[in-house]
From TrEMBL:
It comes from Stylosanthes scabra. Signal peptide: none annotated. It holds the Pfam family RabGAP-TBC. This is Rab-GAP TBC domain-containing protein. It comes from the Eukaryota. Residues 27-186 form the Rab-GAP TBC domain.
Length: 204
């Protein structure tokens, strides 16, 4: 399905998307997880289109950013000393690959940008919390009513879920499976929607 260095991925995905979806839901083999995440997210293409950029950024890194990183260490993976997302990615790929995957996610290489999770005011987190609250009310009305009576809102318990994309909230093996499905579903849902819009707007 992947080919050498991911060379067959796009062709196979276009040809047999349902097979890819089924296999990813079963779980990506651990030895291939890093590469497949890069292919799914579009970060592999970003890396290849921007040779040398990461090295330049590392050279010009400021001491201020280093201080921010050091200050964050105690609040993240204690045994790895990195941000939750970065720590998860760095377990499966190089620094440069992890950097471009973060860029792909935050800026939206093949899906809607996720940078709103971390912008001032956390706009995307607020949106997700509101959507989550409506889903609880719709699918678990008794629980939703109980939360309302006790004045418990999702921001009290679910913010960390969305800010860390569930990498903090679950056992590590489960977080990996969530990320397998999350990356594939969010990226391909966006591509499918974009494809439909192209068809709709095509005069022919």
């Amino acid at each position: 399905m992947i080919g050498v260095g991911g060379s067959d991925w796009k062709h196979y995905l276009r040809k047999k998307p349902h097979v890819v979806k089924r296999r990813i839901r079963k779980g990506i083999p651990d030895c291939l997880r890093g590469l497949v995440w890069q292919l799914i997210s579009g970060s592999r293409d970003l890396l290849l289109m921007n040779p040398g950029v990461y090295e330049q950024l590392v050279i010009y890194e400021t001491s201020a950013s280093e201080l921010d990183i050091i200050r964050d260490i105690s609040r993240t993976f204690p045994s790895h000393g990195m941000g939750f997302l970065a720590g998860l990615l760095l377990l499966y790929m190089s620094e440069e690959d992890a950097f471009w995957l973060l860029v792909a996610l935050l800026k939206g290489a093949v899906h809607a940008p996720m940078e709103g999770l971390y912008l001032a005011g956390l706009p995307l987190v607020q949106q997700y919390l509101s959507q989550f609250e409506r889903l609880v009310q719709e699918h678990l009305p008794k629980l939703g009513e109980h939360f309302a009576q006790e004045m418990i809102n999702p921001s009290m318990y679910a913010s960390q879920w969305f800010i860390t994309v569930f990498s903090y909230s679950f056992p590590f093996h489960l977080a990996l499976r969530i990320w397998d499905v999350f990356l594939f579903e969010v990226c391909n849902a966006f591509l499918f929607k974009h494809h439909l819009l192209m068809i709709k707007n095509d005069p022919h």
